[in-house]
Design goal:
alpha+beta; RNA Polymerase Alpha Subunit, Chain A, domain 2; 3 domains; six-stranded mixed β-sheet; three-stranded antiparallel β-sheet; flat; disordered C terminus
Length: 345
């Protein structure tokens, strides 16, 4: 009998101790304001397309979560590792499938978000108050196929067969099916058989939906893509560092390019037709950079000019200079106060 009483006392003490631990853990709940949170759209219903206004994801300016100290610590470590806290939003799961623009209270969505519950935390407040999104119906359309490189820049294919594919796309948006080729795939596409690949439709949220049909892509050989062109009457700008600009504007120094005729000689480039046309529209076509320390050098100086080739053409290796770059010769002359013209009167 005495033993039973002792066991009972032990059980009661253990139970009370556990309650104290639980109460202590709850009493030590901490608060954390998260500034790196975003909501991204996921689509479990293929008949609809969910997007956010002007952004790939919906930014949460502030989100306050509360929970035990160790859980808050886990979230902090996760934020340090990933840099951002992403929360999925599935309109179909929320039973929102009506096409149009919608505005939904944000806090209730955060309070049941699995990404927050995973940490054993609860959302208490947020800014903004509402989640704004748009639902568009998906229809089957025939769309054109377009090629891009890994940087998202368009590639001109020799042929795409078929040039159009059927895909599920938003009813109210004009869109193309994309194919992204890395450098290895581009090289493979220059071979006689080309490369077979499935195009995809890229949603506004960044999600990619592959088309059912495979296309064959052939890219032109490098030698066929680039041709020599002559750019006549090129233009030159002189870019001055702010201190140097001030010195010249006040008349303290004078800058003179002594071989301007040679610098402005026609430029020979090797480029695709598109890159050549883009460079012809570029103004200025060359730039000479003059820094403040150049004023301290005596006599005639020389510098290689910078060619302002379009950045996207350079990245795609669709334009390059033929021959050596132009070298500008220039003099920076200090004008003494005695030589500075005095204002009339």
């Amino acid at each position: 009998m005495e033993r039973k009483i002792k066991f009972g006392k032990i059980a009661i003490v253990t139970f009370i101790t556990i309650l104290i631990w639980v109460w202590a853990d709850l009493a030590l709940d901490e608060e954390l304001t998260v500034y790196q949170a975003t909501i991204r759209a996921v689509n479990s219903n293929p008949k609809f397309w969910v997007s956010f206004p002007d952004t790939l994801s919906f930014p949460i300016d502030e989100m306050v979560v509360k929970g035990p100290h160790r859980r808050i610590t886990e979230l902090k470590k996760d934020l340090e590792k990933k840099g951002q806290f992403e929360i999925d939003f599935d309109a179909a799961t929320e039973k929102m499938t009506k096409p149009g623009t919608h505005s939904q209270p944000l806090l209730p969505l955060l309070q049941k978000a699995k990404e927050i519950k995973r940490f054993g935390l609860k959302a208490y407040s947020c800014k903004p108050d509402t989640l704004d999104f748009k639902i568009v119906g998906i229809v089957k359309k025939t769309v054109a196929v377009q090629c891009f490189d890994e940087n998202g820049l368009p590639l001109k294919a020799e042929s795409i067969e078929p040039a159009q594919v059927d895909a599920l796309v938003p009813d109210d948006v004009t869109i193309t099916a994309k194919v992204t080729l890395n450098s290895k795939q581009i090289k493979q596409a220059t071979e006689p058989n080309g490369i077979n690949i499935k195009p995809y439709i890229e949603r506004s949220t960044g999600q990619r939906d592959k088309a059912a049909e495979t296309v064959n892509i052939k890219m032109p050989l490098e030698a066929e893509r680039l041709r020599n062109f002559t750019i006549k009457a090129p233009t030159l700008s002189i870019a001055l560092s702010p201190p140097m600009l001030g010195r010249i504007q006040t008349g303290e120094y004078k800058l003179e390019v002594t071989n301007l005729t040679q610098v402005l000689s026609p430029i020979t480039i090797k480029a695709t037709d598109e890159a050549k046309l883009a460079y012809e529209k570029q103004f200025p076509k060359m730039t000479l950079y003059i820094m403040d320390e150049d004023k301290d050098k005596t006599g005639e100086q020389t510098k290689v000019v910078v060619y302002n080739f379009p950045q996207d053409s350079l990245q795609r290796k669709e334009i390059e200079l033929v021959g050596s770059p132009a070298i500008a010769q220039f003099k920076i002359t200090l004008i003494s106060s005695a030589e500075t013209p005095k204002p009339p009167g």
